[in-house]
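Bit of a strange request maybe. I'm writing a small parser for structure token strings and I need a real example to test against, not something I typed by hand. Could someone generate the tokens for this chain?
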Amino acid sequence: MAVPQDPRLRELPSVDRVLQQLEAEGHLDDIPRPLAVRCVRRVVEGARRRLLDGTAPTGWSTASVVEESARAVAWHAQLRLTRAINATGIIIHTNLGRAPLSDAAQEAVRAALTGYTLLEIDPESGDRGSRQAHVEGLLEVVTGAEAGFVVNNNAAAVLLGLAALAAGRQVVVSRGELVEIGGAFRMPDVMAQSGARLVEVGTTNKTYLHDYERAITSETALLLKVHRSNFAMTGFVHEVGVRDLVALGAARAIPVMYDLGSGALVDVRTRNLPPEPTVQEAVAAGCALVTFSGDKLLGGPQAGIMVGRADVVDRCRRHPLARAVRIDRLDLAALAATLRHYLSPEEAWQEVPVLRMLAADPHELTDRALWLARRLRKVLGDRATVTCLSADAQVGGGALPGAVLPSAAVLVRPRDGAVDAWAARLRQRRPPVMVRIQEGGLLLNLRTVLADELVEVVDAFR
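Reply from user aminoacidic:
Good idea to test on real output. This should exercise your parser:
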């Protein structure tokens, strides 16, 4: 028996009718018409689907289509990729662009986007050069590696490394290190695209050196170690240390590739954080190739960084995939400026925002929270209650899993109870302020709010 159609389908306005009404009300003044047409068409089609499948709300009307279209047009009329204030307490927030850049890195980007740049020109000879020249020397000095090479993200670095070193041959890896990264992408799937054949050894929780040794054949091209940077395994577990794996590789003339992922270039234990393997340690251990991200613990732009033996890095450099995953000039400029901070580890702790947030003094955060609370009470009056409280912050971004950082926060509880509406208004401010909804209010965690953003946070509540 056929399901009767919703009679409101006959009332569904056409795209042209909605556009005419929006134009009459002045909603199309700041948006190119083709984009406005796309927005309205998507809204009308969505309304039609909901009416057909019975999911349209009871109070639906033609006015609902016009209102939703007006919101969609307003949303698309503005540039959305703008600076945001992160009050969530998650330092490396993937949805907010991961690592905020240092002042020097921001200035380097501005310089690189103003007109032409000396991207691949040797200014002394006038001959064509390599864009890698802007970072390879810095990578060698900072990490101690013989050579360095940069691509557009770490998954690409892993893909390129495996394709250049092991395509058509076997790569031995611990089953407990076949991780899933962001966006539901799994490293085994990424690795498979390289043409290498993965040989899994050990079990989920325990892998021993003899597991690798038994798996080695004449077809083995590489021993692969993957740092579990986005989760921790505790309890009845065992893994092979990188030095032991390198020793095995050396004895069998097989190189070791180490995907560090999070990419720490400083010892975070000096700031009372859980231990995290550093790139320098992996290089010193004798890994032929080490790959890591530029926008996690390193605190720079999105990039995939490869360092290691000169001959191994050169094979990656000359592989056809290197052209497909090359880094652009703006990320390259930001990365070079960020790496310069690491020429002095103390400078890095002072200048790289991610490191500053990781090392922030909880007492200073409390002082900031008290200052913010006082200002917000003056601005909000009796519209909300404002209280200071202790809170926890997270590193985020697939780095230092399980690390809990003590922080201070301000909790704003609207007296009208419309917490979601208040949060939506904060997101619509310029710059938008991203908060967490907790305990019936808006929680602003001060560990991720930069000191010079506090006044803007107050203004967002006006």
